[in-house]
Design goal:
- There is one protein chain.
- The protein starts with 10 loop residues before the first strand and ends with a strand.
- The chain is α/β, with parallel strands linked by helices.
- The protein is built from 5 helices and 5 strands, in the order E-H-E-E-H-H-E-H-H-E.
- It has a 5-stranded mixed sheet with strand order 4-1-2-3-5.
- The chain has helices at 20-32, 83-97, 103-118, 142-147, 156-164; strands at 11-15, 37-43, 77-81, 124-126, 169-170.
- Helix 2 (83-97) packs antiparallel against helix 5 (156-164).
């Protein structure tokens, strides 16, 4: 549904994987409002925007190659988010707000908070594509967190400090 295009917003963030959903959404946004900023959020270790190939834990985001589904012309900026920050945000939102989301949603939320904290933009949409129900035995499981050696930041202050360290970079011309 394209009803969200009628909403007043200045930016949109989304995790990126093969890029089809972000490209499709971004194309529609740019057709109606070319000045609205589109930000892709990728997991550290993915090769979508940068060649940082390494293993990562967040499901539903990232790739080990450049996808032909992504049209970088529609994406203005991107940020690279660590597993630790994305997973910590998911757990924080579950504990503080009762919202259970998956790791790729943590990427999008991190990017949205970064934009809000580092620009004059104050109305945005963070695409939250997945529920956390499928990850109860992963990112919400303390034993899994320990086994994967993930450092969880649980205070708002620590999370903000990590978000403030993120960089918003111009999207490459691919």
């Amino acid at each position: 549904s394209l009803e969200f295009l009628q909403e007043e917003f200045e930016f949109l963030t989304s995790a990126v994987s093969t890029g089809g959903h972000l490209t499709g959404i971004a194309q529609k946004v740019k057709e109606s409002s070319p000045l609205k900023m589109i930000i892709g959020a990728d997991v550290l270790g993915s090769c979508i925007f940068e060649q940082n190939k390494q293993s990562y834990l967040v499901n539903g985001a990232g790739l080990a190659w450049k996808s032909s589904n992504i049209n970088f012309d529609y994406i203005d900026n991107y940020t690279i988010v660590s597993d630790e920050l994305a997973i910590s945000l998911c757990r924080y939102f579950a504990k503080e707000y009762g919202v259970l989301v998956g790791g790729s949603s943590g990427l999008s939320i991190a990017a949205a908070i970064k934009v809000l904290r580092s620009s004059d933009k104050n109305r945005g949409i963070a695409i939250v594509p997945d529920t956390g129900i499928n990850y109860l035995n992963q990112i919400y499981d303390d034993n899994w967190i320990k086994d994967k050696n993930v450092r969880i930041s649980s205070s708002e202050k620590d999370l903000i400090n990590l978000i403030d360290k993120l960089e918003l970079k111009e999207c490459p011309d691919e």
